[in-house]
Write a structure and sequence with these properties.
The structure is a single chain. This protein is α/β, with parallel strands linked by helices. The protein has one domain: Spore Coat Polysaccharide Biosynthesis Protein SpsA, Chain A. 33% of the residues lie in helices and 23% in strands. It contains 11 helices and 11 strands. Strands 1, 2, 3, 4, 5, 6, 7, 8, 9, 10 and 11 form an 11-stranded mixed beta sheet that branches. α2 links the parallel β2 and β3. The model has no long low-confidence stretch (mean pLDDT 92).
């Protein structure tokens, strides 16, 4: 009998009572043939965050919360953290699962997300990390913008182009194998705003990022959230990136792409990106994932 895969999901929190119920339920309500280990790492909140989390722990331990997967457990860790990334690092040091991810305390996973992720990792051992589609949620918990499936160039990730030049690799829909976390050294807890950017670069040194054409999560737009501290993010990114000329050809191409004749765009893109392949996962009607590899323009026709 094949052992079901286990998800280890970490949520860093601080005074998160407003939205953390939705976050918790989006994790523990996932349906499928897998186990869930959910670790909430709290920075000594002064509101009702602890009480909210402990309520769900009691519901699970008493059997009053109806499970839709093999098993669910919640661990609550409380203590001072110097940054969100220190909390994430602490959480994964307690993780025992096969598949890792973190989600912030105001974001949510969509129903069916874990099932699609689990099916993909179970079927394709060569896939070490993947990214689904992120949509956008407002403060009233309404989705106001559906996301799209983006393709990623492994070389460009390792060179630090996603974020400074190209679209961000949004963390809430990224999942990876525990072995990749361990072999890469995991996240650097000294970061304040760009720890995920540095982590993706580490991952890309080992293996390509696969794009999953499936809606996985929602990022919530809330006034005053840490992601709005863009100056701190750019400072850390600029400190990390030392070879700035890497950006020039890519910036130039995407600035000129709209005026390049369509028949010539693949040629110009090939000159900029080289022979790097892109990696795409699509889901059939029965939810079985299928691999597609090729050039950017070949795969973009599939999306």
């Amino acid at each position: 009998m094949i052992r079901p895969l286990q998800f280890s999901i970490v949520t860093p929190s601080f005074n998160s009572q407003r939205f953390i119920r939705e976050t918790i339920e989006s994790v523990i309500n996932q349906k499928g043939d897998f186990k869930i280990e959910y670790i909430v790492v709290d920075n000594c909140s002064t509101d009702q965050t602890r009480q909210v989390v402990e309520k769900y722990i009691d519901l699970l331990e008493s059997g009053k919360f109806p499970l839709k997967c093999k098993s669910v457990c919640i661990e609550f860790l409380s203590g001072k953290d110097s940054s969100m990334y220190e909390a994430i690092h602490k959480g994964f040091s307690h993780a025992t699962g096969d598949i890792f991810a973190w989600i912030n305390s105001d974001d949510i996973y969509l129903q069916g997300a874990f099932d699609a992720i689990q099916r993909t990792f179970a079927k394709y051992q060569q896939i070490k990390w993947l990214k689904g589609i992120t949509s956008y949620l407002n403060e009233n918990s309404n989705i106001f913008s559906a996301g799209r499936c983006n393709l990623y160039n492994q070389n460009w990730i390792s060179r630090g182009l996603y974020g400074p030049v190209l679209q961000f690799i949004q963390q809430d829909s990224v999942f990876w194998r525990a072995e990749l976390w361990n072999s890469s050294g995991g996240i650097d807890p000294s970061y304040y705003a760009a720890g995920d950017f540095a982590l993706w670069r580490k991952f890309a040194e080992h293996t390509p990022l696969w794009s999953l054409n499936s809606y996985v999560s929602c990022f919530r737009k809330v006034s005053g959230q840490k992601s709005q501290d863009i100056n701190a993010y750019w400072q850390e990114v600029n400190d990390y990136n030392q070879i700035r000329h890497n950006y020039k050809s890519v910036k130039r191409y995407f600035a000129l792409e709209p005026i390049i004749p369509r028949c010539l765009r693949p040629l110009f893109y090939r000159l900029v990106s080289g022979k790097q392949k892109y990696h795409l996962l699509t889901l059939a009607n029965n939810m079985e994932p299928y691999l597609r590899e090729g050039s950017y323009y070949e795969l973009r026709k599939v999306l």
